Structures are given as structure tokens and as C-alpha cells.
Amino acid sequence: MRGLQEAMGLARAGRVRLRVLNVVDELSVVAGIESYAVATDLIDSLRASGQSALDTAAAIAEKARVKAECVLREGRNRAVSDAILDEAKKWRADVIVMGTHGRRGMNRLLLGSDAERVLRESPVPVLLVKDDKRRTWQKRRGRT
Fold it and tell me: In the chain, which residues have pLDDT < 50?
């Protein structure tokens, strides 16, 4: 949602269209699951969750009077970063705005970073917006 807010700010400032993309990441599901039925159920769940997020994004954009096209794409057994870069090329994007989990250490090593790959390989500027859940948690605990 923080990435969406930043993208809407850019869209409002330039009076341009916004494309909100959600990629269903089949690779992360299939990688560790041997049962086809379980994998299919999880992918269906990801698809439903992605569509729900897009519906929310569309409502937020409409309320803010920002023209937004919301698109759900299948990963098609490729990295999410590849799907994002392909869509940006097809759309002729001027900038890519995306959220990042800010993983570190072993999680980053094992899971990789689609945001980092998009940043490295994108032919257009990329704005990465870090998730602030940790910061919110720290505020609740009385830390800054």
C-alpha cells in the first residue's frame, strides 16, 4: 500500500495514468510442494489474494481521483521480476514503483530479491518503497 500511495502521488503530479500490477508467483509455491492438488490450491489462493489487493488499489485510486488500470498476471513459471520488467516494457512505463520487504541475511539469500533485480535490469527509473511494518511494530513497543 505504501508503494501505491507513492505511485498515486507521482500520477497526480504528472496527470498520468497508473498501472497497478500483481504477479501470481507460482515458482515460490511449486518449489517446495510435491502435491499437485496442494500447489493448485495455493496458487488459486494467491490469485484470489492478488485480485483482492487489486480491487482495494482500484478503490483507493478512484477515491483519490487517479486513473488506474489494475492488472493480474500469472508468473508462468518465471521470476516475478521478469514478469514486472516485461509488463513495464509492454506498457512503455516511464517509472516503476514497487514495494520491497527489505529482507536481510538468510531470507534474502534463500528468497532472492525481485525488487533488486528489477532495479538492476530496468531501462526506466525505479522507486523502491520499503515496507514499514517493522517500524510500526517498534513504535508500538515504545521504540523509534
Answer: 107, 109-111, 135-144
Does pTM top 0.85 for this prediction?
no
Instruction: Encode the chain in three state secondary structure.
Output: CHHHHHHHHHHHHHCCCEEEEEEECHHHHHCCCCCHHHHHHHHHHHHHHHHHHHHHHHHHHHHCCCCEEEEEEECCCCCHHHHHHHHHHHHCCCCEEEEECCCCHHHHHHHCCHHHHHHHHCCCCEEEEECCHHHHHHHHCCCC
Q: Are the CB atoms for 129 and 100 separated by under 8 Å? A: yes
Angle at 51 between CA 50 and CA 57, to 5 degrees: 90
> What's the pLDDT tens digit per position in 98-136?
988 665 555 454 445 788 889 899 999 999 888 765 544
Using N-to-C axis directions, what is the helix angle for 114-121 and 80-91, rounded to 10°? 40
